[in-house]
Design brief:
This protein folds into two domains: about 220 residues, Rhomboid-like fold (Up-down Bundle); about 35 residues, no CATH class. Helix 8 runs antiparallel to helix 9. The chain is about 70% helix and about 5% strand. It has a two-stranded antiparallel sheet with strand order 1-2. A hairpin with a 3-residue loop joins strand 1 and strand 2. With about 290 residues, it is mainly α. The protein is globular. The longest helix has 27 residues. It is built from 13 helices and two strands.
Length: about 290
């Protein structure tokens, strides 16, 4: 029929438009949003191929099985079986992760996130290795999300977030409730997931404390990524060029340093006295800087 070919072409064009829209959204997303997109993709993959995902991507509780599938040290963090599990993790990651980016860089977010994935996995494996128990494979981003939550709460504990129907709640209180929920899960028979969450929480706390000293303990993740990026890069570096610094650039750097010092002073004030202690001018300045 004459209309069949037109409908087919229209359907194909619609599919291509959707795919292009998804690609465009992913390309323009920040680091937190890209992690969320990846989790959604792997959740759909898990729903469609549950047996395959659990067998080959989830982290096995048996250490010998893990040695035959070492990639599960990372991939388990993208495997969610239950809709509530993935929604709770990604909602917290969206709000807390984007707030994290106001106080840390994109690279520091990724360093903390992926290092916490490994920290949670190691806590999970060591728990079953030393107790000689058996348990279900580990899946989910909770260890990494918990690390981001705790790291941010450690840096700005008095920062208050306004919740609907509840009011303003300081960040350390929210993080403490999140961690306590994992502690309560230790009483269950198969508590490997709770162990992984607490491993992530411990890493997040240590990460923030080390960052206060200027030491990014997750920087090795960045180094590995850069190594492989450079190894597979097709661009060749040209001859070295002499760069002459201009006075304009120096002035720009001084302005940037002054702005950063002011931000640090405001963050110290929040840490000591809470967000509400800021003047309206300081709140406006912090908001503009975050944008």
């Amino acid at each position: 029929m004459p209309g069949t070919g037109n409908r087919t072409n229209l359907n194909n064009g619609t599919k291509l438009t959707i795919i292009n829209d998804i690609k465009h959204a992913y390309h323009n997303a920040n680091a937190v949003e890209k992690i969320i997109y990846l989790n959604v993709f792997f959740f759909l993959l898990t729903v469609l191929f549950t047996a395959f995902s659990l067998q080959w991507l989830a982290l096995p509780a048996d250490f010998d099985s893990f040695l035959s599938k070492p990639w599960t040290l990372i991939t388990y963090a993208f495997i969610h079986e239950r809709l509530f599990h993935v929604l709770s993790n990604l909602l917290v990651l969206y709000y807390i992760g984007n707030l994290f980016l106001d106080f840390y860089s994109k690279k520091q977010f990724l360093n903390c996130y992926f290092s916490a994935i490994i920290a949670g996995a190691m806590a999970f494996l060591l728990n079953y290795y030393f107790t000689s128990k058996t348990g279900a494979p580990l899946g989910g981003a909770s260890a990494a999300v918990t690390a981001i939550f705790v790291a941010l709460a450690t840096k700005i504990p008095r920062y208050a977030i306004r919740l609907r129907f509840i009011g303003s709640v300081e960040l350390w209180v929210m993080a403490a409730i999140w961690v306590v929920l994992s502690i309560l899960q230790l009483a269950t028979g198969d508590n490997g997931g709770a162990i992984a969450h607490l491993g992530g929480a411990l890493f997040g706390f240590i990460y923030a404390k080390q960052m206060e000293k200027g030491n990014d303990i997750g920087k090795w993740i960045e180094s590995i990524v850069n190594f492989f990026a450079n190894a597979f890069s097709t661009k060749k570096s040209g001859p070295l060029k002499t760069v002459y610094k201009s006075g304009k650039r120096s002035t720009s750097e001084e302005i940037s340093k002054t702005k950063q010092r002011k931000i640090n002073d405001i963050l110290d004030k929040i840490s000591k006295s809470g967000y509400e202690s800021l003047s309206q001018e300081e709140k406006d300045f912090l908001f503009r800087s975050g944008k």
